[in-house]
Amino acid sequence: MYKPRKLSHVRRGRPRAGVLARAEFAQLKHISQITTVVKQAARGAGFELAGVAPVSDFDELKYFPEWIQAGHAGEMKYMGARNEAGELKRASLRSTAPWTRSVIVCAINYNTANPYSTQVDDSDRGWISRYAWSREDYHEAVMRRLRAVEDRLRDSVGGQDDLATAETPALQTRCYVDTGPLVERVYAKYAGVGWIGKNTCILNQKLGSWLFLGVILTSLELEADLPAPDRCGSCTRCIDACPTDALIAPYQLDSNKCISYLTIEKRGAICEGMREGIGRHVFGCDICQDVCPWNRKAPATSAAEFQARDGLVNPALEWLAEMSVEEFRETFRASPIRRAKRSGLRRNAVIAMGNSGNREFLPILIKLAADDDAVVAENARWAVAKLNESNL
Fold first, then answer.
1. How far is 261 from 304, CA to CA, in rounded Å?
2. Cα–Cα–Cα angle for 78, 83, 87, nearest 5°?
3. What pLDDT does residue 78 have?
4. E-strand stretches of 16-172
5. Closest Cα to residue 109, out of 199, 193, 196?
6. 371 is catalytic
7. What is the pLDDT of residues 330-355, one digit of tens each?
8. What integer pLDDT is reported at residue 390 of this predicted model?
C-alpha cells in the first residue's frame, strides 16, 4: 500500500476516516490514470500490446532453478548468474531489483509477409530465423520505443513522490529488451500480453507468437492486469514438429537440443549426433512457431524496421560459407546475426550443405575442408562424407 500525504485535518494526531478514505481514493484514481497513460504511450510508440504485471514469485519462476540445475541452459552461463547471496537472479526480481513493484510489458509484432520455413524447400539455400531478417537490430528498435514509454511514465508521475513506496521514496525505472535478469515471458503472461505456449513462446490470441518483448521495471505499484489464459489446449504440434526433440515436455525446453541455441549460442563444434537434425538452418529456427495454429492468420507488421533485408530470406548457403570478414561485418552491421559470429555462421552453413543432399556443394566443401578455421574445416569434412553417403 502507498502512504498518503500527511493530511491537515487531524484529530488527536490521526486523520479522520472520511478524509483518509477520500485521500486513498484519489491516490488510487491517480494510479489508475497513470496506468492508462502508460498503455496509451505504448500504443503511441508502436507497440501492439501492453500490460502491467505485479512482482511475485510466480510458479513458472519456481521452476527456473530446476531448469538451470538440470543443465538445460547449455553454455549460456548468463542464464545462471547469481547475486552476492548466491541466489539466481532470474528466479526472482526481489533478489536483483528489490525496489520493483510493477513490471510494464510491451510487445510489438515482427511478422512479415514472407513464407514460413515449413513452406520452402530449396536445397541450395538455408534458413535464417524470422526475427533476424530485420533492417535494424530489434534490441535497438524496441528499446527506442520503450524509452518513449518510460519518459511518458515519468512525465505522468511528475513530482508526485508520494506515489512511490515507503522503501523507495523516489520513482525508479529500468528498461530491458532481452538483456535483463528476468524471464520476460513469465511477466508477459501475468501482464495479460499472452500465454506461455507449449513451445515456451508467448502466444497472443490475435497476433500469434511473432512478438518482441520489452519491459520496464518500476517502483510504482501500478494497476495490474489479469494473466492471459492458456489456449494451447491438447495441441502438441510444436512438440511433434521439433526435429531435435528439444521440447522435452509441454512448456519445457532443453536448450542443448534446440536448433536456435545450437546455431546461435553454441560456440565451437556441434555434436555430430545433432548436426543432421539442424537441417538447413543457419541462424535460429522457427519450426515450432511455423506449425502453431495460432500463427495461421498472424498479421504482418507495419514497422519498417522489421521488414526483411534482401538476401536474408532463404540465403544462399555458398554465399554464407565463403563470406569474408569484411563482408560479414558490413552485411550484419546492425543485425542480431552478429551474435553467431562469422565462424559460427560459416559452420552452420557448412552443416546445412551437408544436410542438403545437393552434391553440387562438394567442390566448395572439399575446399573448405582445408579452411583456416578448424571448426569450419571439420564440419566441411563431415558434410562431404554426408553427401557421399546420400549418393550410395
1. 27
2. 95
3. 93
4. 49-54, 102-109, 127-128
5. 193
6. no
7. 999 989 999 999 999 999 999 999 99
8. 75
Identify the pLDDT of residue 158.
77
Radius of gyration from C-alpha coordinates of the chain: 24
Distance separating alpha carbons of residues 373 and 158, to the nearest angstrom:
56
3-class secondary-structure state, position 135? coil
CA distance 109 to 295: 12
Cell of 175: 528498461
User: Cell 495441441 identifies what position?
Assistant: 235
Question: What pLDDT score was predicted for residue 28?
Answer: 60
The confidence score (pLDDT) of residue 170 equals 79
pLDDT of residue 143: 98
Instruction: Residue 155: count other Cβ atoms within 10 Å of its Cβ.
Output: 10
What residues have CB less than 8 Å from 253, skipping those under 6 apart?
72, 199, 200, 246, 247
**What are the domain boundaries of the chain?**
1-57+92-243+279-315, 244-278+316-390
pTM for the whole thing?
0.89
Strand-strand pairing, 202-203 and 195-196: antiparallel
C-beta neighbour count of 84 within 10 angstroms: 6
Give the orientation angle of helix 138-157 with respect to helix 17-45, to 10 degrees.
Answer: 150
Q: Which residues of the chain are under the pLDDT cut of 70? A: 1-29, 159-169, 392
The whole-angstrom separation of Cα 388 and Cα 375 is 20
pLDDT at 2: 39
Distance separating the N- and C-terminal Cα atoms of the chain: 73
Cβ proximity of 205 and 49 under 8 Å: no
Nine cell digits for residue 44: 503511441
Helix (H, G, I), strand (E, B) or coil at 217: strand
Helix (H, G, I), strand (E, B) or coil at 184: helix
What gap in Å lies between CA 268 and CA 132, rounded to an integer?
21
Which pLDDT value is given to residue 305?
94
> Residue 188 corresponds to which cell in the numbers above?
508477459
pLDDT tens for 177-207 read 999 999 999 999 999 999 999 999 999 999 9
The rounded distance, in Å, linking the Cα atoms of 122 and 126 is 8
Residue 156, C-alpha cell as written in the block: 505522468
Catalytic residue of the set 178, 230, 371, 373: 178
List phi, psi (to 5°) of 25: -65, -45
Cβ contacts of 13 within 8 Å, gap of 6 or more:
none
Close Cβ partners of 234 (under 8 Å, ≥ 6 residues apart): none
